[in-house]
Write a structure and sequence with these properties.
Strand content of chain A: 15-25%
Strand order of the largest sheet of chain A: 14-26-25-24-15-22-23
Largest sheet of chain B: none
Largest interface: A-B, 35 and 33 residues
Distance between the termini of chain A: 40 Å
CATH superfamily of one domain in chain A: HAD superfamily/HAD-like
Shape of chain B: elongated
CATH class of one domain in chain A: Alpha Beta
Helix content of chain A: 40-55%
Number of helices of chain B: 4
CATH topology of one domain in chain A: Rossmann fold
Number of helices of chain A: 26
Number of strands of chain A: 26
Structural class of chain A: alpha+beta
Distance between the termini of chain B: 54 Å
Oligomer: heterodimer
């Protein structure tokens, strides 16, 4: 890679970032095959724009990790001819490349990227075109427009407020009034549409929500002001009106903290590769996975994924299903047996014949279930929704009540009182409470590497009373325990001997080492002895081996014992000489025991694993009750278990693999854990980095606290409402009072929620 | 006081100009990605000369050399946008 960059005069790449000078090129062992990118059908689906001469494609590059990446990728036109322009979006980990079709091709562009270490993430779902959201842009314009109107109207309103007893010239009042009206019009017609739509929807569903109260307030303010201005009766409340809309929109923007580079809505399509090698006569050809047909012969090598159900043609294979089913051990498959989609081939090259297409495989059928088709209602546990259910009707009742009270005496005062109540009760502070509190919560949790899909998820997490854990990949490290050997280099023969001996033992440590050695180990030991709690001794080929703790193996030196931490070490000796030791990091994630102990006091804990019950005894102290531990559950069984449980309780499901996808979907809140936020995670409400799994209880606690903050803040803004209402019901609400109460209440609420959330986060040690 | 009318008209025109600029900025996609540009601008545009050793270049710190390179890149950028 260096030579390529050097030729192109791009060595500066290595000067840019001294801490992380590029991630080392992944050794794939063979060149990735991109022939399928030359196919017109593929090209058409992948390209976001083409006119035959120039084409543009947006590629997902998960390897983007530093500023130097941006620099390198944006200088791609120096690396290969025909690339016209490339632009990186760091937050989304994407590069948009424009290239000249006459000089280069999509395939060549992708190959260049692959060569410099940015292998594009071409998964089946990348051919389904992503539409760039224009809604965001419209929102900014709405906000900008409201801010513009608010600022200008305030300037025109201030002279009147500050003029004192004499007032200002009537001609200016006229002019300012009419200017305000013109300025406020786009705010009413465009910026405020954000509130009308949910309000209308809610009316249609015969429910009260906050947007109804807001919309009523907005309309009352605007039309009363218009009436006052046009009749020359007063100056109106246009300043308060635009201020309200501006504040509310700003609150909405604040709440919308998104984590662009994370994807919360993935399914199997973003796990399966876009193409696979198919045997065509004598040659192997890369074929798009969705075009695989029954009868095609696919060729897979070590570490590759099988995208469709297929029958094994070549001799033997070992399949790693851990991500798909949760089984932690590899499964040996004989010729003629079916291998299911999603299995990862381990070991040597295999040939398989496809038995069903990608969309109908055993695994993908999970996504055809109703749970995946229904939209989930994230606001079910929203405090603001519950609160507005009584708040909005109360306001309308008070407004009608005061109108009725004044009606016999003076119809004018009745209308005044009616509109004044709607104006002052317009829940500005109230509506800002939730966005600001949850916006801060989402941000603080995000800084702790706990990413929420939306702010509403925080409220769902807060009501959790039951937690269900997946085992493989969640409680344990994915696949193998981490094994490290230190000592003299082991020859192939020694490895084979050790593997043969260890194969006889069922102890978890032996099996971890066996997997690490990765040797067949088919020799039969001459003798074999296992001393429980100490180690194993065996003889092969006239040599005596002892594998076990320091006291069990022979000739262990002082320095080899030194530095032993909580990690397990297994010493190896041959014919009385110590060869070194295997160090095995814990299978379970660090801090797990303490975490489970803390969680057990407050929640009901369940275990739902696709793996065998081999670790039941080891996990029992963590969960306490055996009846809530379930093993050998298929993905759909997991889904049903969680669905049944969440019909009565608020279930938090934590999992990582494709096999948990259904369960995550059926739970109240689904959290996916991952070691690397760039890799695949099943669709979920939140993504938790494994390094902070041990803080889970603090996070849940923090979301609960945030609900208390929201409640307190509701109380605060209600207080302002009561003060304002006491003015309003008498029919005397001056624009000045309105213009003072609204910003004061909004600012207090914003300050209160900001301070309270940060204080709470500090007390819980997560800030 | 008549001058007030002129001033008000003037201020509105200027404010509308800024609003127009904002709307243009949003529409041309400048608010789509608010993260990358902040990192991009931190990277120096100057490419090291192909033959000169990085350490040597640092020592001399020749400003004219940098200026030349910068011009060179500008030219590149122009051709790139065609």
């Amino acid at each position: 890679m260096y030579s390529l960059l050097s030729e192109s005069g791009l060595e500066a790449y290595y000067l840019l970032d001294e801490e992380t000078p590029g991630i080392s090129r992944r050794k794939t062992g063979r060149k990735a095959r991109y022939e399928f990118l030359d196919e017109p059908e593929m090209r058409e689906k992948l390209l976001s724009f083409t006119d035959g001469r120039k084409s543009t494609i947006t590629l997902s590059l998960p390897q983007i990790h530093c500023s130097a990446c941006i620099w390198l990728l944006e200088h791609m036109q120096r690396l290969a001819p025909g690339i016209l322009r490339s632009e990186v979006s760091f937050s989304r980990r994407e590069a948009t490349v424009t290239f000249d079709e006459n000089q280069t091709s999509l395939r060549k562009v992708v190959e260049v990227l692959d060569r410099i270490g940015y292998e594009p993430d071409l998964k089946i779902d990348s051919i389904e075109k992503r539409t760039v959201s224009r809604a965001d842009r419209a929102f900014y314009i709405k906000l900008g427009l409201a801010g513009f109107a608010f600022g200008n109207i305030m300037l025109f309103s201030l002279p009147e407020y500050l003029a004192g007893a004499g007032g200002i010239d009537t001609q200016f009042i006229h002019l300012f009034g009419h200017l305000n009206l013109i300025l406020a019009l786009p705010v009413l017609l465009y910026s405020s549409t954000v509130f009308y739509r949910p309000a209308l929807l809610s009316i249609r569903q015969r429910q009260w929500n906050m947007d109804i109260a807001i919309s009523l307030g907005i309309l009352a303010m605007f039309f009363r002001s218009t009436y006052e201005i046009l009749t020359g009766y007063g100056v109106g409340y246009m300043d308060s009106f635009t201020m309200l809309v501006f504040f509310l929109l700003a609150g909405k923007l604040f709440q919308r903290k998104t984590f662009d580079r994370l994807s919360f809505d993935r399914d199997y399509r973003s796990y399966f590769p876009l193409s696979t090698l198919v045997q065509k006569g004598e040659t192997e050809q890369a074929v798009p996975a969705i075009r695989l047909q029954v009868g095609d012969i696919v060729v897979l090598r070590h570490g590759e994924l099988l995208p469709a159900d297929a029958r094994l043609l070549s001799g033997k294979a070992r399949i790693d299903y851990s991500f798909v089913t949760g089984e932690s051990d590899e499964i040996a498959v004989e010729k003629g047996q079916v291998v299911y989609a999603g299995g990862r081939i381990m070991g040597s090259r295999v040939e398989l014949v496809v038995t069903s297409p990608v969309s109908q495989s055993y695994l993908t059928s999970l996504w055809n279930r109703s749970e995946f088709r229904e939209e989930r209602d994230d606001t079910l546990h929203s405090l603001s929704r519950r609160f507005s259910r009584f708040f909005a009707p109360t306001i309308v009742l008070i407004a009608i009540g005061s109108a009725l009270y004044w009606l016999p005496q003076s119809p004018a005062t009745a209308i005044n009182a009616f509109t004044a109540v709607l104006i002052i009760a317009c829940p500005c502070a109230l509506a800002l409470t939730t966005p600001f509190t949850l916006g801060w919560v989402t941000g603080i949790l995000g800084r702790n590497r706990f990413y929420l899909k939306s702010a509403e998820v925080a409220e769902k997490i807060a009501v959790t009373d039951t937690i269900i854990f997946d085992k493989t990949g969640t409680l344990t490290f994915p696949q193998q325990a981490r094994v490290r050997f230190s000592g003299m280099p082991l020859s192939d023969q020694t490895c084979n001997h050790l593997a043969s001996g260890l194969r006889q033992s069922t102890h978890p440590v032996s099996r971890s080492i066996l997997r690490y050695l990765d040797h067949p180990g088919n020799d039969m030991p001459d003798f074999f002895e296992e001393v429980p709690g100490r180690g194993i001794a065996f003889g092969i080929g006239g040599k005596q081996y002892r594998v076990g703790n320091a006291g069990f193996a022979d000739g262990v030196s002082e320095e080899q014992i030194a530095g032993q931490s909580e990690k397990t070490r297994s010493y190896v000796s041959r014919d009385g000489d110590c060869l070194g030791f295997f160090e095995i990091s814990g299978r379970y994630r660090p801090g797990l025991v303490q975490l489970m102990e803390r969680l057990r006091r407050r929640f009901t804990l369940h275990l739902l694993s696709g793996d065998t019950a081999g670790e039941k005894e080891a996990l029992k102290p963590l969960f306490g009750d055996e009846s809530r531990m379930h093993f050998e559950k298929k993905p759909e069984q997991k889904l049903e278990y969680v669905r049944d449980l969440s019909s009565q309780r608020n279930v938090l499901m934590i999992g990582d693999g494709l096999n948990d996808a259904g369960a995550l979907r059926a739970s109240t809140t689904g959290i996916a854990v991952t070691d690397d936020t760039g890799t695949f995670t099943p669709s979920s409400d939140a993504i938790l980095h494994t390094s902070v799994l041990d803080k889970l209880d603090s996070f849940i606690d923090f979301t609960r606290y945030s609900r208390r903050v929201i409640k307190m803040s509701f109380g605060l803004s209600l207080m302002y409402n009561v003060i304002g209402l006491s003015f309003a019901v008498t029919g005397t609400l001056s624009p000045l009072v309105c213009a003072i109460i609204m910003p004061i209440s909004s600012v207090t609420v914003i300050l209160f929620t900001t301070a309270a959330t940060h204080l709470g986060a500090r007390n819980r040690g997560i800030i | 006081m008549e001058v007030m009318y002129l001033l008000i008209a003037f201020s509105l025109v200027i404010a509308s100009g800024f609003l127009g600029a904002f709307i243009w900025a949003v529409r041309s996609g400048q608010y789509d990605d608010r993260d990358t540009p902040s990192r991009r601008m931190l990277i120096d545009d100057i490419l090291p000369d192909k033959k000169s050793h990085p350490a040597k270049k640092k020592k001399t710190g020749d400003s004219t050399e940098g200026g030349k390179n910068r011009k060179h890149i500008r030219k590149n950028n122009k051709t790139r946008h065609h």
